[in-house]
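pasting for ref
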Amino acid sequence: MSALRKETRLPFWQTQRGQERVRLAITMIAAFSGAALLIIPFYWMIATSLKAPAQVFELPPIWVPIPPRFENYVEALTLIPMHLYAFNTFFIVIMVLIGTLLSCSLSAYGFARFRAPGVNLIFMALLATMMLPGAVTLVPTYLLFNALGWVNTFLPLIVPAYFGSAFFIFLMRQFYLTIPVELEDAAKIDGANAYQIYWRIMLPLSKPVLATVAVFTFIWTYNDFFSPLIYLTDESHRTIAVALSYFQGSPRVGPQMHLLMAAAALSLAPPLTIFVVAQRYFVRGIVMSGIKG
């Protein structure tokens, strides 16, 4: 009884409940601090997109533009043919998505299920290609596409996706290894061949990893600046990522930071929408892809 009274006289932060609440408070403070570090640049982009040109570089900086200039968004869309660049971007993204999902899923299924001499060696060689810096293959790849007459077309940006990606093949192979082999055995008893098993069993069960690959592919292709810059010489073929650089200074458009931020804010909408829609499958695909090696 005296021990109980002594326990009750302890300061709150020394009790078990108090220590749990202190740890929770520290965790929440750290989480909110990290979130603030990520949100502040985003808020600054939105605030700058609503400023007048004279307010962009004022010191001390203006955090809340008054009055907000929503016409900056209209001007950013009309100053350059943004609709044309958006069409080019989404055409490339859709074609790359189709090619990546088909080629990587089929290749990953072969590595996960088929047994043949040297299959593991081939898989290791495939993974080794991920260690090559992009600068090493840039010049020979450009010379190849130039010899084929593909420069200034969308083909150099689309065709490589139909030959697979080492990272995505590895990711999907790890996911396929978590699917029970008994499902395929049952399908084989019913007379299904390898392609029917892949199309009717493996792909429907692979929605999480397919969503993961789709999100990564969409964001990487949508934000790709370097490849369209070197392969698409005609301005009518340019993409949104390249078009954003026009607002930093070009023969057609002078440096206009407020319009750059407005165009950047608008360009965030598609990838953000894709991530929100596929978030449930995206997280599940990342988690399950590393269960079995």
